[in-house]
Design goal:
This protein has 69 residues and is mainly α. Helices cover 93% and strands 0% of the residues. The longest helix is centred in the C-terminal third of the chain and has 40 residues.
Length: 69
């Protein structure tokens, strides 16, 4: 995961937590649910980036093994 992607996902998560808290305090269920959705979206982004990183690492290992032969 690139640094920008990590920061973006973390910002989405923190923004979602803030929305959820604001919705909870004010009794605005819509805002609270939006906050939870934003947090879930951030988690999905992070998971996708982790899969991309893992696939990239695996590809690099295969390339390295092929170069040795």
């Amino acid at each position: 995961m690139s640094m920008g992607d990590k920061i973006g996902a973390k910002a989405d998560d923190l923004g979602g937590k803030a929305k959820e808290a604001a919705g909870s305090v004010t009794g605005d269920e819509k805002l609270e649910h939006e906050g939870k959705a934003d947090q879930a979206k951030a988690g999905i982004k992070e998971a996708v980036e982790n899969v991309k990183d893992a696939l990239g690492d695996a590809a690099d290992k295969v390339k390295g093994a092929l170069k040795k032969d």
